[in-house]
Amino acid sequence: QRSAPTLAAYDDRAAEAEEAEVSRRVALVMAASAAAAATTTIATPFPAGAIDIDPKKIADLERENMGKANTNGAPEKHIPQVKVDTEGNIEVSVPHVMDPEKPHYIMLMWLKDVGSRSKDVVVVKAFPATDPSPPTLKVRAPKGANLKPLLYCNLHGLWEGEEFTV
After folding, report:
1. Pick the residue with more confidence: 147 or 21?
2. pTM for the complete prediction?
3. Residue 97 — very low, low, confident or very high, per pLDDT cuts 50/70/90?
4. Quick check: is 46 in a domain?
5. Who's near 73: CB < 8 A, 6+ residues apart?
6. In the chain, N or C: fewer CB atoms in 10 Å?
């Protein structure tokens, strides 16, 4: 259980400890996605994909960061940008560094089906820090799908883009 922030949260050491805490929380997600590093997973109603990243792990990540999305870092470098063509091809990207030295990178990018009651995660892509910038997710979706792009930065947490319809 996380306690309320204190003055120590503004101390450099406390900030480093908090970053380490975030890293531990996402370690499980990264372990599950390590083998899938640059592979896109697609669930119905989308075409079949290659490798599984458990959507429950993504749900846990969202739950742990509830109320904190889009609050830590520069929005112009973190909010997912979406392009959709007339064939239903979607490209989600963000102008973010992929720096394995710091490290500072986008760990995960995913789409949620916001048109359904369950708000299921329909596609997830994991990125190693060594991937080129900008991190990009490409997928094809059926016309009429209502989706929302999200991503997770290893330093700045959860970021949500605007909902869109294919």
Report:
1. 147
2. 0.70
3. very high
4. yes
5. 153, 155, 156, 157, 159
6. N
